[in-house]
Amino acid sequence: MVVRVLLLTVAALLLGGCGSRDDEQATTATSTVTTTTTTTTTPALDGASTAPVSWTSPITETALLTGVRAAPHRGYDRVVFEFENGVPGYDVRYVAPPILADGSGDEIAVAGGAALVVRMEPALDADLTQESAPRTYTGPTRISPSTSAVAELVRTGGFEAVLTWAVGVDEKRPFRVSRLESPARIVIDISSE
Question: Is 177 inside a domain boundary?
Answer without folding.
Answer: yes
